[in-house]
């Protein structure tokens, strides 16, 4: 019933037009000939006409006009076939009606007059059906054009919105550049005003500025740096931690000189070292270590420290982030493991084929320091 309701709603205009036309034709026949045929006569004849009308518009005429060259012979052929079929159907229909005495017996004669009258009627409805075909085609093209125009407008709107978003992003990028620039210039100002008073504090400012510049420039997942650049920042972090604690810390950082030229994703070593200083127990007797070396065509990174009791489970987020970034950069070839042992030691082991590091040889231009290079040696805090 729902489908029938949708179908009736879709073709309600067709029903209205046909109802008006059939009513008009019946009235005109009654006025001109002074006679009204039985309803069954009208029903059967208009069924034939409706079949002719819609089969011509939806099938035959559309088939004939598929190709402009072949339409020259297809169109006359279609019309001749339709006239022949219509004459045959009309004659068979009238024969059956006469057989059952619906129309007067003996009134049916297949003569030239019968052929001309019904042939003309067939051509009359074929003409209207052709007009309906062109109207329907024109309507479809208009709808298609309207849809395409709407899509084009939506694309223009989307493009305009994308341009606005790009402008906002560019402004945000400029602001992001301005803010660190202001920060580094401020650190530059502090450095120059305290270097004569406290060389240790001035050196701490330089070191902090270098680490911050490295973190800002390196925070681009998927890009690569020289491993030596991050090794320098781990040494800077250790130096700042010693300054903050005001004592030597039991932390050893060992690496092979050859690995400094390897290309690697940033902020892996620095995050591991930061976890050690932040969450590890670096009291006397509790040594921590970070090692980077080559073994059997593998780059191996190992960290080992005793976890402080209050921060026993604080390593998770940073390590998961490292693992995701390593998997993204180097795929499933990465072997990443970390574990908490009964003796309190927390160990991390990362193994990556060196070949992958050579394949990802695109590096970022790094500029450590503030707005200029400040060559310096770390000042002994004592």
Automatic annotation (TrEMBL):
GO MF, one annotated term: phosphorelay sensor kinase activity
All residue ranges annotated as the Signal transduction histidine kinase internal region domain in the record: 170-247
The UniProt keywords, alphabetically, are: Kinase, Membrane, Transferase, Transmembrane, Transmembrane helix
A Pfam match is: His_kinase
Q: Which InterPro entries match?
A: Bact_2-comp_sensor_kinase, Sig_transdc_His_kin_internal
Spans traversing the lipid bilayer: 12-33, 45-65, 72-93, 118-135
Give an example GO cellular component term for this record. membrane
User: What is the recorded name of this protein?
Assistant: Histidine kinase
**Biological source species:** Mucilaginibacter mallensis
Q: What is the lineage of its organism?
A: Bacteria, Pseudomonadati, Bacteroidota, Sphingobacteriia, Sphingobacteriales
């Amino acid at each position: 019933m729902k489908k029938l309701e949708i179908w009736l709603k879709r073709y309600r205009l067709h029903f209205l037009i046909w109802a008006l036309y059939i009513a008009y034709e019946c009235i005109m026949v009654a006025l001109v000939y002074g006679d009204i045929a039985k309803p069954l006569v009208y029903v059967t004849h208009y069924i034939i006409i409706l079949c002719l009308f819609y089969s011509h518009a939806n099938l035959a005429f559309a088939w004939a006009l598929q190709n402009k060259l072949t339409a020259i012979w297809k169109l006359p052929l279609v019309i001749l076939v339709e006239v022949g079929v219509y004459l045959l159907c009309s004659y068979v229909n009238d024969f059956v009606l006469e057989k059952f005495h619906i129309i007067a017996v003996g009134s049916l004669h297949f003569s030239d007059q019968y052929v001309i009258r019904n042939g003309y009627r067939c051509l009359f409805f074929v003409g209207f059906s052709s007009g309906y075909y062109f109207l329907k085609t024109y309507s479809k093209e208009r709808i298609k054009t309207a849809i395409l125009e709407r899509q084009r407008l939506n694309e223009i709107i989307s493009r305009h919105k994308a341009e606005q978003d790009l402008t906002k992003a560019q402004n945000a990028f400029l602001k992001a550049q301005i803010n660190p620039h202001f920060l580094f210039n401020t650190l530059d100002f502090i450095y120059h005003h305290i270097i004569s008073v406290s060389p240790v504090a001035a050196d701490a400012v330089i070191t902090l500025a270098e680490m911050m510049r490295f973190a800002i420039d390196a925070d681009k997942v998927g890009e690569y740096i020289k491993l030596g650049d991050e090794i320098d920042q781990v040494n800077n972090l250790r130096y700042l931690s010693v300054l903050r604690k005001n004592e030597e810390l039991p932390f050893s950082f060992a690496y092979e000189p050859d690995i400094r030229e390897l290309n690697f994703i940033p902020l892996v070593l620095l995050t591991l070292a930061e976890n050690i200083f932040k969450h590890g127990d670096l009291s006397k007797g509790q040594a921590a270590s970070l090692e980077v070396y080559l073994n059997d065509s593998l780059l191996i990174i190992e960290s080992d420290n005793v976890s402080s009791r209050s921060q026993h489970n604080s390593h998770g987020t940073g390590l998961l982030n490292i693992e995701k970034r390593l998997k993204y950069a180097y795929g499933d070839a990465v072997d990443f493991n970390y574990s908490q042992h009964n003796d309190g030691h927390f160990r991390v082991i990362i193994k990556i084929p060196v070949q992958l590091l050579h394949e990802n040889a695109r590096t970022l231009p790094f500029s450590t320091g503030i707005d200029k290079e400040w060559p310096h040696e770390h000042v002994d805090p004592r």
